[in-house]
Write a structure and sequence with these properties.
Order of helices and strands: HH
Distance between the termini: 11 Å
Number of strands: 0
Radius of gyration: 15 Å
Number of helices: 2
Length: 65
């Protein structure tokens, strides 16, 4: 993987982590149950995105395609 590609991946991981943290914080501040659930769902999607990117990167680092 080229250094530029690694920078793109690092940016994507950073963005997904940042958005998960912001959504988690926002959900903790909201009192409306349906809105809170919507924000928590968004946090979960960002966490999954981070985990998926990290898994692919780890697989690649361990000799995967």
């Amino acid at each position: 993987m080229s250094p530029k590609e690694l920078l793109y991946i690092k940016d994507a991981l950073s963005h997904a982590k940042f958005m998960k943290e912001k959504c988690t914080h926002a959900a903790s501040q909201v009192t409306d149950a349906s809105l809170k659930q919507l924000i928590e769902d968004a946090a979960g999607r960002h966490k999954k995105m981070f985990d998926d990117i990290y898994t692919v990167l780890a697989s690649h680092a361990n000799g995967g395609a």
